[in-house]
């Protein structure tokens, strides 16, 4: 996809293109207390803050972003929402994701063009940290922009803090992967511990459960945070049942877990 915002003003045509600066701001897992001072400063410096809407079934996510803005900014006049395109899951996974990211980049550009016709600084609030299993940096590249990245509190660090455990055993490695990869490839070679993100539910059932301990958490850092831990054979079904009940209750779920053997 051709860069939507060429990096130089008036490159090649003598015209003055609007100068756009982009901030990707990590905001933690939904708790306003997780937003760092650096993130608050970046939010205050933005001329425009874009909040994605993910449909009525995930309206709480947009509400949480608005709440974070209200707590740390007060003035919401610079906050604009846009409808996030839906990924087509009918074809090959990577092709669908790339097409989806193209569509999101076009959505970003449409709102930026409409709200900042003379240029300015735009910010997007990213769950957790923009560098860990988030595609905002890849989408920004489609715009031809090099963003300023403000790191945030990750769901992985909130998970280990909530369970009061270290991420790794002494001198032992940890692999961070996705539910899709865990299902397809099994336990990663050479790893004593595996942190699993973006699981649609129950990828741990693809593993032989004996000798495996799991620490699971949903809605981390939020008032309805839910935690379950124990030997995988003993708690696997309880996690699945709890996850299904929470998803039905709230219309969406964000969860993550750590496995160790």
From TrEMBL:
Protein EC: 2.1.1.152
Enzyme class per UniProt: transferase
Record Pfam families: TP_methylase
Pathway where it operates: Cofactor biosynthesis; adenosylcobalamin biosynthesis
Reactions catalysed according to its record: precorrin-5 + S-adenosyl-L-methionine + H2O = precorrin-6A + acetate + S-adenosyl-L-homocysteine + 2 H(+)
Alphabetically ordered keywords of this record: Cobalamin biosynthesis, Methyltransferase, S-adenosyl-L-methionine, Transferase
GO biological process, one term: cobalamin biosynthetic process
InterPro entries assigned: 4pyrrol_Mease, 4pyrrol_Methylase_sf, 4pyrrole_Mease_sub1, 4pyrrole_Mease_sub2, CobF
Molecular functions per Gene Ontology: precorrin-6A synthase (deacetylating) activity
Annotated Tetrapyrrole methylase domain residues: 24-235
Iron among keywords: no
Keyword match Transferase: yes
Gene3D superfamilies: Cobalt-precorrin-4 Transmethylase, Domain 1, Methyltransferase, Cobalt-precorrin-4 Transmethylase, Domain 2
Family annotation (PANTHER family): COBALT-PRECORRIN-2 C(20)-METHYLTRANSFERASE (PTHR43467), PRECORRIN-6A SYNTHASE [DEACETYLATING] (PTHR43467:SF1)
Protein name: Precorrin-6A synthase [deacetylating]
